[in-house]
Design brief:
By secondary structure, this protein is of the alpha+beta class. Helix content is about 25%, strand content about 20%. The protein has a two-stranded antiparallel ribbon with strand order 1-2.
């Protein structure tokens, strides 16, 4: 597996609303200077990101996991 971040403008696999959400999340992380977790160095804040979208309801769920999540559970 990989833990590398792949930066792209759009993803053809995602439904259109998720590309908009992806850009919103990227802007939010950059604006607030959120660091991405580096597993080898054990540094950074954001360790995981999950985005789910329901085509039936149009609702989108965004879940963030911080570097402390493994210690909390």
């Amino acid at each position: 597996g990989t833990h590398e971040v792949v930066d792209s403008d759009t993803c053809d696999v995602l439904v259109a609303p998720l590309n908009d959400v992806k850009e919103w999340i990227r802007d939010l992380l950059v604006r607030h200077r959120v660091s991405l977790y580096e597993e080898r160095k054990h540094r950074g804040f954001l360790r995981g990101l999950v985005v789910r979208h329901s085509q039936g309801t149009g609702e989108t769920l965004v879940g963030l996991t911080d570097h402390q999540a493994a210690k909390k559970s």
